[in-house]
């Protein structure tokens, strides 16, 4: 507990957040360093495909570092508190009432946008690697599992293991699930965020009770078949929320 306090003896959120994050392998490599390395690997892949960077410039030594990843995660948490407004609104220079000052102070919009695209760093561009080797528990690897889900398993497993070390199981009363709803061609169930539109159906986000007489009861359900990630905070014909 003492390690989570600042010089004024106040507990700081960022110290608690760092405590919950995993490390990887037998090294002291932090979560931020681990993700930064893989984000930069994916960004290099995008550049080789002709993608033009807006802020990062490897020729000048400006690459994705651990500090950038930490700032980006902070920006994403700030956006979530505000209801996930669009990136345009967060960094707006025309309407200061729409913009979010802590985000603008943390990092430039172009830097955030470049890294936002690299959230797909576990994509299918490196098909030759044996990504099934990264799982601690082999039963999680299924022949039907999508490759990008297998690849992200290393990060996901590490976070889950660290969470179990830090949080008492009895306190975890709810479970979040993201499933797919089958759709039909050119229906709202097959409209998805570019550049990877959902072709198999819409996403169903749900929050359910895990224990007790209400086990399985849905506290929150949300169907999303929007056109872009920026639609997530808006009401339109492709979004339905039940709470």
Report on the structure:
- This protein is an alpha+beta fold.
- The chain has two domains: 1-121, no CATH class; 171-243, no CATH class.
- Helix content is 33%, strand content 12%.
- It has seven helices and four strands.
- Strands 1-2-3-4 form a four-stranded antiparallel β-sheet, with no helix packed on it.
- Strand 2 and strand 3 (218-224) form a beta hairpin.
- Helix 2 crosses helix 3.
- The protein is globular and about 60 Å long.
- Mean pLDDT is 71; it is low at 128-140 and 228-240.
Question: What's the short story on this structure?
Answer:
With 243 residues, the protein is an alpha+beta fold. It has helices spanning 13-20, 31-48, 66-81, 87-90, 101-106, 109-117, 147-166; strands at 174-182, 201-209, 218-224, 239-242.
Describe the protein's topology.
Elements: H1 13-20, H2 31-48, H3 66-81, H4 87-90, H5 101-106, H6 109-117, H7 147-166, E1 174-182, E2 201-209, E3 218-224, E4 239-242
Antiparallel strand pairs: 1-2, 2-3, 3-4
Give the averaged pLDDT, no decimals.
71
What percent of residues adopt helix (DSSP H or I)? 25-40%
Query: What is the percentage of strand-forming residues?
Result: 5-15%
Radius of gyration: 20 Å
Number of domain modules: 2
Succession of helices and strands:
HHHHHHHEEEE
Strand tally: 4
Terminal CA distance: 36 Å
Largest sheet: 4 strands, antiparallel
Strand order of the largest sheet: 1-2-3-4
Primary descriptors:
single chain, 243 residues, alpha+beta, globular
